[in-house]
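Progress report, Aim 2. The chain analyzed during this reporting quarter is listed below.
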Amino acid sequence: MITTPLGYLLSVALIAAVFGIAERWHRARFMFDYLPAVVLIYASAMAAAQLGLWERSDALGAVYKTAKSNLLPAMLFLMLLTVDLRRFLKLGPRLLLAYASATLSIIAAFVTVFALFGFGAKEAGMFAALAGSWMGGTANMLAVGSAFGVDDAAMGYALAVDAVCYSLWVAFLLALVPFAGRFARWSGAAQSSQAHAGPGCACTIGPRRYWLLLGTAFVVALFSQWAAARLPGLGTTTWSVLIATALGVAGSFTPLSRINGSQEIAGTMLLLLVALIGSRAEFGDLSSIPHYLAAGFAILALHAALLIAAARLFRLDLFAIGVASLANIGGVASAPILASAYHKSLAPVAVLMAVMGYLVGTFGGLAVGYILQRLAG
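Predicted structure tokens for the chain:
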């Protein structure tokens, strides 16, 4: 049994590193298409916790709390440095309308299904975290979940629903690609075929400045927590998330956005955060997972129905609504794959939409959470 803070951090980091490295190994890519690294990291850390690898002590609990509260705002700041609002707005009215329709339909679907399934206050935060993921990514899920104080076990349920529903949703959208012509004739849309400029982020060019980015990110994390502790109303964690988000967007307009390495560091922080959360999770009852999965599929079905209605109303093609949907639910990892299935020149559109989710996902998830809390009464 590990009893020291350093041993705890090193063992958690090792779990994150093993699966993080394996995900980049080309021979293991097929497995990770269906079981993302974040899910395997969480499951492994949770299993290790149940087997008693780490002592349940105040000292290790304090290390967990400190690491999580510092990593979360630092990660959000680094991820948002690549958001390019100016290029996103240049996508044009049709694609922007498709993106807005996808995001709003996800919000509407979450609220409707939550009410229909009769969930209560206990599940409100969990579904808010899932909504954050389905409008942004896992980083947004952790941010929203932390803001609503979702316990580590409930975050595990959210990750499980996310992984299963997401995998099937990607396969479904890819299977629809051959029907793009028929769909365009039905909706009255002109099919997308023009090439688009690249995403405009120079953060993958030139030497990596890890220490500069790390230093700046942790300064932002410390400032976010300092300022959050002095602001009333929303709670310290929520304010910390919002302040880090605002500073990340502000940083995207500065030379910081052109420094190589921000996404790599943010991705590493994300995996470490997932491992930390898994290391503290305690599952008492797994019988509710099928109920949550049914709700997840119901949300996707309603989201699809609303998107199809928007396509007919606004004359959008299958590419526009499909990529907009996957940019929300799948993020940067999968949206460009779907876009490339239509035409290779369209992949940058998916990247821009998906990166925008880093910003939209946090605010959208928080909005869904407050609505669900009101519904739960």
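The chain has a mean pLDDT of 84. Residues 83-262+285-376 form one domain. These observations will guide the mutagenesis work planned for the next reporting period.
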